[in-house]
Write a structure and sequence with these properties.
The protein is an alpha+beta fold and 621 residues long. It is built from 28 helices and ten strands. The strands form four sheets. The chain has a four-stranded mixed beta sheet with strand order 7-8-10-9, sandwiched between helices. A two-stranded antiparallel sheet has the order 1-6. A two-stranded antiparallel sheet has the order 2-3. The longest helix has 30 residues. The chain has a domain of 123 residues. The chain is 59% helix and 6% strand.
Length: 621
């Protein structure tokens, strides 16, 4: 009987793990339903960063096949090439997608990585919350909710690195297991999961590094005693070594290449300030993309600007936040509550950025008496503050006799690595996980009290498990409903007639025009069409967070077309095919570009193909 009982327990345990992995899948497929029928030929979210990460997924498959260098693509900005360090390599995602990429192509690989992130985030959160609550039902519900955090759903539009939230709870889970067992395998796991965070996104590495260190210290029974143990330092060295060994092969070439680039990778306040979040928005901004109340929410002052600035999202949802408040009130001040509150504080401090901002991300100015302001100005305080943040702030403060409001993040935002982070709102993912943990600690406490009262009254014992299960499932379902989004825009990436035509032509670089439009990312689409279909090099290419100098140089030249000097530059760059995309231009723009290309000071032939016209430069010397 013992053997049967043990087997039954293992089977039941396996079912919990399987449910944690698969429960989000139907909902994720429903959310991504525009991809049905286009899984290997379309992406959701509009033409933006998603196209860049399709290229990243494709590029790793070429590297693995021995056909490319991970950090350099010679086909963009031909013949100069593109230094790929200007875009996150998100190596962990690319490797995760690699089997699908090799079989069905990079678009399917990209979409598979997005889909997998729902299942893996749910599973990672399940493992972590289960160690905190000892309740698999609550852990399952927490996992489902975490898979659909608002943070994740706004990044589903194209930010693949930020969708890899699964490694965050797995890192915390490994720390929990290490502190409980002191087994080396769990400190190795901690190093592994931290490395996967780093290899998914450099942002996440910077965010999770301090969070993981604080988690370890605050969850330990006695940090002072822990520090005195030689075995602890041995284990820390082992875990750190694992992380370094996995991160270094990607990070070292990345930072070496960056050091040779003319741009600085430190972000001034002006770059990160637009992604700072007002504290009220962190806790109370409603979902502006919701299919039921999204339009109403978009008209409210607190969230009016969230629809166009969707990356400024750190809100955990009203229901989960209410659960966290219950958790804080009902849970004793244990190490669990302390570490979760610390994670929440880190998330809030980071997401607010260096200065207090209003709902539109403009610095809040606090009026003060002119005499006090004059004294501070004479003392040099105004100038020092503006130098530390943004020089133009001094003029604004003097004009309004007002002061900015520095926040704790201002003390560290210029430190190495931290200074390279532009979208500080991404610290909000720590708040999401912390609020989730606190909410389910509170629910666990309420369940214990409920059971205790039933035992004392000797009533309803038979119905208790079913009632608890239904209540927890309803809470999880309502949270996910609160997070739900309107249907995402689909961008299809099927080959155009011009791509088939270019594939049959002699070698030569391709320039797609117009350079950009307000609604269509022409150059990113050109990159995808290039590596998927016609395999010709490009005159322009990926810009990334730090556009290469050649990008601005070439665009400046192209502004002078059809002048002879600009036309000869096209020849110098190896351009042979100039593709004019008529479908993204209005009538006036079509006439303008037709006149420009028809007046090129280099002999060319004109070929019309559906919604495009190709000018083949036949007169280049």
């Amino acid at each position: 009987m013992a053997t049967i009982s043990r087997s039954a327990r293992r089977f039941q345990e396996g079912l919990w793990h399987l449910a944690a992995l698969l429960t989000p899948l139907p909902l994720a497929l429903a959310l991504m339903h525009p991809l049905i029928g286009h899984f290997d030929g379309g992406v959701i979210g509009g033409a933006g960063d998603n196209l860049a990460y399709v290229w990243v997924v494709h590029w790793l498959s070429q590297v693995v096949a021995g056909k490319a260098n991970l950090f350099f693509d010679p086909s963009m900005y031909y013949p100069v090439g593109y230094n790929a360090v200007a875009i996150e390599s998100t190596t962990a995602n690319s490797f995760l997608a690699l089997p699908i990429t090799m079989m069905f192509g990079p678009v399917a690989g990209y979409n598979a990585a997005l889909l997998a992130s729902f299942c893996l985030t749910s599973y990672g959160t399940f493992l972590w919350i289960r160690t905190l609550t000892r309740n698999p039902l609550l852990a399952l519900a927490a996992g489902l909710i975490s898979a659909f955090f608002p943070y994740r759903l706004v990044h589903l539009r194209g930010q693949l690195p930020q969708m890899s939230t699964q490694w965050i709870p797995l890192c915390f889970f490994a720390i929990e297991q290490y502190l409980r067992t002191r087994r080396i395998r769990w400190i190795i796991g901690t190093g592994l999961f931290f490395a996967l965070n780093a290899l998914s996104s450099w942002y996440t590495m910077v965010i999770v590094g301090p969070a993981a260190a604080l988690y370890l210290l605050l969850r330990a029974q006695s940090a002072r005693t822990l520090f005195k143990q030689p075995l602890f330092w041995r284990d820390v060295i082992i875990g750190a070594s694992v992380a370094v060994l996995l991160i270094a092969p990607v990070a070292v070439p990345y930072f070496e290449a960056q050091s040779q680039m003319p741009q600085t990778y430190s972000r001034p306040y002006i770059a990160m300030g637009i992604f700072s979040i007002n504290p009220a928005q962190i806790f109370f901004a409603p979902n502006v993309h919701h299919p039921v109340w999204g339009d109403w929410a978009a008209e409210q002052p607190i969230s009016r600007h969230m629809r166009t600035a969707h990356l400024r999202t750190a809100f955990s949802g009203y229901l989960l936040l209410a659960g966290a408040v219950v958790g804080v009130i009902t849970t004793p001040f244990t190490r669990r509550r302390r570490v979760l509150l610390t994670l929440a504080a880190l998330g809030v401090i980071g997401a607010m950025g260096p200065l207090l901002v209003d709902y539109t991300a403009r610095p809040v100015m606090v009026p003060i008496p002119p005499s006090i302001f004059h004294f501070l100005d004479q003392a040099g305080a105004i100038e020092q503050a503006s130098d530390w943040f943004k020089p133009a702030l001094a003029d604004q403060m003097r004009a309004e006799h007002s002061l900015i409001v520095p926040l704790p993040y201002a003390l560290i935002y210029r430190l190495p690595f931290i200074s390279s982070m532009r979208i500080v709102s991404r610290y909000g993912i720590l708040l999401n996980f912390a609020v989730c943990g606190l909410a389910f600690l509170g629910i666990a406490q309420l369940i214990r009290r409920f059971r205790r009262r039933l035992r004392q009254s000797n009533r309803g014992a038979a119905l208790t498990p079913a009632l608890i299960t239904v209540s927890v499932a309803l809470f999880a379902a309502l949270c996910v409903f609160e997070y739900w989004q309107k249907p995402y825009k689909l961008v299809t990436l099927e080959a155009r007639p011009v791509d088939h035509w270019l594939a049959e032509q002699p070698f030569g670089a391709v320039l797609e025009l117009p350079i950009e439009t307000p609604t269509v990312a022409v150059q990113r689409l050109a990159i995808v069409y290039s590596f998927l279909y016609h395999h010709k090099p490009l005159v322009l290419g990926m810009r990334g967070s730090f556009p290469p100098a050649v990008d601005a140089e070439r665009k400046a030249v192209l502004q002078n077309l059809p002048q002879a000097e600009a036309a000869y530059k096209l020849c110098e760059w190896g351009a042979r095919y100039v593709v004019l995309n008529l479908d993204v231009l209005n009538e006036a723009e079509q006439r303008h570009w037709t006149a420009v290309l028809g007046g090129l000071q280099v002999q060319s032939t004109r070929t019309a193909l559906d919604n495009t016209v190709v000018y083949t430069l036949t007169g280049c010397p």
